[in-house]
């Protein structure tokens, strides 16, 4: 069994690495062709372009590793099937699990590698690639982007205040759906400001339909009178430019940073946005398991011994279909989670659970 396992594993690793190289080459080639005019018009140095695409390599790996795992596995087992080796293995008494053990072990190792790279390298790679694009490749486009509305803006401001804003429009310098939590030095809530709209006056923010609650720092369950204002100018020094600088992207955070981010804004009352952040958090944990999940879902097709002619090349189509379905189901699950239809944990694990169930059904039916 060790000789067989080594033979299968070696084939899977070789095809996996080749697939990753092909995906990286195609991605860079397509992106280079798309942005060639920008590179030329902005006179971007060759070293900058090289660094820009080098920063994308961890991102490309994480995004394409599940499909590469599936391609490598299907190619390997389809080739064995075409040569009647699967029939020989089953005739010798090996069941589905013993035959596919090398692929499953490889899938687990690939999932661990994707998790590690996604945690350690992808956040920095995304930040670096965005910085290069904004500063040296598309400065004019970046200026236009800076004027686009920003949804769900979180940041920690001056005077120990936590800000949550449903939408910030830099072009008009207005805020929509404002929640501000004031805290003392021990992070105990002292006030909560809720407003429908905010407008920048040039030195301060003027809030419309503003409600202010003052809390007892020693006893968080009690608060003073609720004050309501049709219009109110508050002493909030963060300017629109400051808010643009505070914008954080979930994709540039690892799990630890995102957990801390969610914890910091837990008491803000922004339930919908926090729910979306929790979905993103659980997705960061669940996504690497796609490597093993889609391998498990695709293996029964490669081991079917009824019709073997052309199965090796058909593996490409099977892999693309399974991969496409996984990303569609995953996107649907995440959308349902962020729409409060599903709990965040279930939303993030919806696609892996679905494909495990599909793979289990296929194994029981075919074997």
Question: What does this entry look like structurally?
Answer:
- By secondary structure, the chain is of the alpha+beta class.
- It has two domains: 213 residues, no CATH class; 79 residues, no CATH class.
- Helix content is 62%, strand content 17%.
- It is built from 13 helices and six strands.
- The chain has a six-stranded antiparallel beta sheet, with no helix packed on it.
- Helix 10 runs parallel beside helix 13.
- The mean pLDDT is 83.
Strand runs, count: 6
Structural class: alpha+beta
Number of helices: 13
Q: Alpha-carbon distance between the termini?
A: 20 Å
Helix content: 55-70%
* Largest sheet, strands/sense/barrel: 6 strands, antiparallel
Described by the principal axes of the CA atoms, the overall outline is: elongated
Average pLDDT, all residues = 83
Oligomer: single chain
Strand content: 15-25%
* Tally of separate domains: 2
Low-confidence stretches: none
Give the neighbour order of strands across the main sheet.
1-2-3-4-5-6
Topology:
Elements: H1 2-41, H2 46-82, H3 85-91, H4 96-120, H5 122-137, H6 139-146, E1 150-157, E2 161-169, E3 174-183, E4 189-200, E5 205-215, E6 223-234, H7 240-245, H8 255-264, H9 271-286, H10 290-303, H11 311-338, H12 344-348, H13 350-366
Antiparallel strand pairs: 1-2, 2-3, 3-4, 4-5, 5-6
Helix pairs in contact: 1-2, 1-4, 2-4, 2-5, 2-10, 2-11, 4-10, 5-6, 8-9, 10-11, 10-13, 11-13
């Amino acid at each position: 069994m060790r000789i067989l396992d080594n033979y299968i594993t070696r084939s899977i690793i070789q095809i996996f690495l080749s697939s990753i190289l092909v995906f990286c080459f195609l991605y860079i080639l397509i992106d280079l062709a798309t942005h060639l005019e920008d590179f030329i018009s902005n006179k971007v140095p060759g070293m900058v372009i090289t660094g820009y695409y080098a920063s994308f390599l961890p991102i490309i790996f994480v995004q394409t590793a599940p499909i590469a795992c599936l391609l490598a596995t299907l190619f390997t087992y389809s080739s064995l099937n075409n040569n009647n080796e699967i029939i020989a293995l089953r005739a010798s008494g090996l069941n589905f699990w013993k035959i596919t053990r090398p692929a499953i072990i490889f899938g687990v190792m690939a999932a661990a590698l994707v998790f590690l790279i996604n945690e350690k390298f992808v956040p920095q790679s995304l930040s670096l690639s965005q910085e290069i694009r904004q500063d040296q490749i598309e400065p004019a486009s970046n200026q236009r982007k800076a004027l686009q509305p920003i949804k769900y803006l979180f940041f920690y401001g001056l005077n120990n205040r936590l800000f949550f804003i449903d939408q910030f429009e830099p072009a008009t310098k207005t805020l929509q759906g404002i929640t501000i939590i004031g805290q003392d030095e021990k992070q105990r809530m002292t006030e909560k400001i809720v407003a429908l709209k905010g407008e920048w006056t040039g030195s301060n923010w003027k809030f419309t339909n503003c409600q202010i609650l003052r809390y007892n720092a020693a006893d968080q369950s009690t608060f003073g009178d609720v004050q309501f204002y049709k219009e109110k100018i508050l002493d909030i020094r963060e300017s629109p430019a400051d808010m643009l600088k505070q914008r954080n992207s979930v994709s540039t955070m690892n799990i630890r940073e995102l957990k801390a981010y969610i914890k910091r804004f837990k008491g803000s009352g922004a339930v919908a946005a926090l729910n979306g952040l929790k979905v993103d958090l659980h997705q960061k944990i669940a996504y690497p398991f796609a490597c093993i999940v889609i391998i498990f879902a695709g293996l029964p097709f490669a081991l079917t011994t009824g019709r073997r002619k052309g199965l090796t090349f058909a593996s490409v189509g099977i892999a693309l279909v399974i991969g496409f379905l996984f990303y569609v189901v995953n996107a649907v699950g995440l959308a349902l989670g962020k729409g409060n239809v599903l709990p965040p944990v279930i939303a993030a694990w919806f696609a892996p659970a679905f494909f495990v169930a599909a793979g289990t059904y296929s194994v029981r039916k075919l074997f």
